[in-house]
Structures are given as C-alpha cells and as structure tokens.
Amino acid sequence: MRADRFTGKTVCITGGAQGMGRQAALDMAAEGAAVAVTDIDDQALEDIKGEFDEMGAASLVLHCDVSKCSEVEAAVARIADQFGSLDILINNAGLLKSFTIEETTNELIDRTIDINIKGVLYAVRAVTPIMKKQNYGRIVNISSIAGKNGDNTTSFVYGASKGAVITITRSTARQLGPFGITCNAIAPHAVMTKMMEYWDDDKKQAMADKIPLKRLGTVEDMSNLMMFLASDESSFITGEVININGGYYMD
Fold this sequence. Notes:
Order of helices and strands: EHEHEHEHEHHEHHE
Strand content: 15-25%
CATH superfamily: NAD(P)-binding Rossmann-like Domain
Largest sheet: 7 strands, parallel
Radius of gyration: 17 Å
Number of helices: 8
Helix content: 40-55%
Shape: globular
C-alpha cells in the first residue's frame, strides 16, 4: 500500500458501503483519495463514514439507487461540487440472484438490468463531461466470469447483464480515450462477499478445489486490482476486462 498513490484524486464508488466496493473505498482513502461512496443501505453508509472519520479521510456518503438516473446525476454533481473534481469512478453496485431460467421473473429481469446495466450507463454518462473537462479520468467497471463464460448457478439475466458491462467498457474506452480517460473492467469469480451467501460450505470447498490456486477470492484481491486500474500505473491500459479468479477461467 502506498500512502500517496491517490493524493489529490477524488473517487466515486457505487455500492461502496459493502463488499469489494467497501474494501476499495477504505484502501483508496488510506492511499490519499477523497472518497465518495454511494449505496442504498443507510446503515452501511453510516458505518463506513465512521471508519473514514477515524482515518481522518476526506469523504462523502450518499444514499443513491443507481437504477434511478436522477439520483445518479444528483450524486455525481454533489461529489464534483464538494471536492472540486471527480477523477475516478468505480461502478461496483450490482444485483445477483440465484434462480433457474423458469424461476426468473419479469421483475427480476427488470431490476437486474436496471442496476447492472442502466446503473453503469447512467454513472458513466454523468461523469463524462467532468472528466472530459479535466482531460483525465479512470473508470473501472465490475463485470464477472458469468459475463464471459455464462454461469449455471445464477439467474441467466445476471450473466447477460455482466456481458453488457464488458461491451459498455470497450465502447467507453474507445470514445473517451482521446480525452485522457481510461475505462477497464474486472471479471471476478468466487469472491466471498455477502452477495455470495447462497453458496454453502460444500459449494465453497468444491469450487476452491477446481481453482488452480486452491482458494477462493477475497475482497482484498479485488481491491488491489481495482486500485491498479484506477491509478496512473495503468495509464496505457484501456478497454480491457481482466480475469481475477485464481486461474479458474482463462482467455
């Protein structure tokens, strides 16, 4: 960890009060960033705000449902106004439910698309004018192995949504590259966050046995990669979707 890697930078992390987003928020604050976290869990927002305050970090927490365009735009405007810039966007908010094809309701299809696809589109669109004006920006999206290879443990709309995130990432990278803005994504698998509570211990062990590194992923693993892509160390990388799964899926 480098204490000054993000000094002078403002980061917005959607869904950042929980899971891998929370870890990245705390890690980036420790490395000097002013961190804005959006989430729909008010208690989780209050908890992470307390941790920021204990660290003495510049921070802002906002209730924001990324499926609602007006809330995303208001949050981005508030962040830029308070900190004077918005340099890094991490689109971490997401919805994952485990259902068969027959069990997948219209409501779940709509909600998954609204959060996992529209939420990313809304956030990227909202930060684009700010980053263009700065001639600088880092956008990191969270895709999934399911977006590359399909999946038989989650609702089939989840894989579809994460495949869309890959295309959004590449389109954004092509269109915003001339303005000094990079856009990359990570494609995790088998990361033990609250979202993965539907895996029991037997499922976890069976999956670990299939992974070449013989372990499951951690939020720290994810945070390390997100921070690399959000930093100037990755300034010549854009449009990439990086697997982070211990070697379970390689392409």
